[in-house]
Prior knowledge:
Elements lengths: L2 H43 L13 E4 L1 H5 L8 H12 L3 E5 L9 H4 L6 E4 L4 E4 L5 E3 L4 H11 L4 E7 L2 E5 L5 H6 L4 H10 L1 E3 L2 H7 L3 E8 L2 H14 L2 E4 L5 E6 L4 H11 L7 E5 L5 H6 L2 E4 L5 H6 L2 E2 L7 H9 L2
Parallel strand pairs: 1-2, 1-12, 2-3, 7-8, 12-13, 13-14
Antiparallel strand pairs: 3-4, 4-5, 6-7, 6-9, 9-11, 10-11
Helix pairs in contact: 3-13, 5-8, 5-9
Amino acid sequence: MDRSQCLALGGRSLQLRILFEAFRYHKQSQHQRNLNTKRSRRNAAAPNFRRKHVNPYTIVASDLDGTLLNNQAEISRENLDAISRIAERGGEFVVATGRTYAEIPEMVRNHPAIRYMIYSNGAVILDKKTGEKVYTCIPNSLVCRIADLLTEYKVHISIRHQGDCCVDENYQEEEHYQFFRVDRCHVDVVAKCGVFIHDFDGYMRAADNVEVVSIFFHDPAEKEACRAKLQDLGGLYLAEASPSNFEIVNAKAGKGSALLALAERIGVPREKTMALGDSGNDLTMIRAAGLGLATRNAQKILFDEADGVICSNEEHVAKYVLETYFG
């Protein structure tokens, strides 16, 4: 075979190879188009076959001071927006605070996505939509015994009663608050929202439905001695909101009991509840929830009990929860 014949034969082989590859590509493309058509028809006929994202938590119960609020006791725009988006994803964002109703910041109190509020350390559960309140207050007879016992100690006393923080008008000097190591946030809230009572002792002893008796001490030793005597009275739970303070509620109250009561009331199992907090008065809630989370700025006791640690109160806690658990 001469050179020209070899070249002609090689050219025909190349043409055949090109035709074969073109045919194979056409068949593969046709097969892929058929598969795509089948998938499109299947998805159009049965769109529910696609899995939907299911949120692991239904209730998100958050403390205010040191948790949802920043160090200026304000709620950020990021947190306000995140609360709305959590609700859009089927979550129920619940405020759980030691403050009473009047002390809750207006932007939180009136947020349209917040229906339920636990306040006064669990003494009251409020359904904003219906106006219904569930009270677990301190019996008047026990309030009177507390008042008798406190005469033995140097203390600053306030009570939360009927949604207000009631204080003695005779002890409102800055030096008084400094002596009893009352935190600045509490002083500012009282100045803005407090009800000032002239005969405070008489008012306290006559009051029904006292939600909380809040006590600040100057002397840590007196605080511990008083704690022991109060516990001996029975029927009380003492929660620490700050190192110089404890807040007395009915033993059947507390944020943890209130969270579980609310969950049962609206048909949410315990394992689908989440709690966020930073202080000792959040401890029962952290323990009770399906997932208890401490902020990075929390007291050590919460780190020991919580299931995990999240961002600080300066880093938009609700936004963190939205992005981590409702994304």
